[in-house]
Design a protein that fits this description.
Layout lengths: L1 H14 L38 H13 L4 E4 L2 E4 L1 H37 L1
Helix pairs in contact: 1-2
């Protein structure tokens, strides 16, 4: 992450006094009102324009500084760490399976104890 921040800061410093109006190369997943499109949507009405402005590039270092390492939406930027998101989902699935296994084990243990008490 420090290398990404340093790179963004170098870009911001480089364009500071140069006559740049637009930069191409952004991946767009939001509309003009800066609302994200649904995940995996193929229809993007009123999609935001592709070119980034000079102001967009100046805001990138601050966006990277505010990134929490998981997911951040800051102005026209959306940053996410997909590996951490997958780990969180996987951890949730493992916890759910453990809770289910414990519930089944508890059920059969109580049932067995009830049968033993009857005989």
């Amino acid at each position: 992450m420090p290398s990404n921040l340093a790179s963004a800061q170098r870009v911001a410093d480089f364009i500071g006094n140069r006559p740049i109006t637009h930069v191409l190369g952004a991946h767009i997943e939001m509309n003009r009102e800066e609302d994200l499109f649904p995940w995996k949507s193929t229809y993007h009405p009123h999609e935001r324009a592709l070119p980034l402005t000079k102001a967009d590039l100046f805001s990138l270092p601050e966006t990277l500084r505010s990134f929490n390492g998981f997911y951040t939406k800051h102005g026209k930027w959306v940053l996410m760490n997909q590996n951490r998101q997958l780990m969180a989902i996987g951890s949730g699935a493992v916890l759910l399976l453990l809770a289910l296994a414990w519930s089944v084990w508890s059920y059969f243990r109580r049932r067995s104890a009830a049968r033993a008490a009857v005989t």
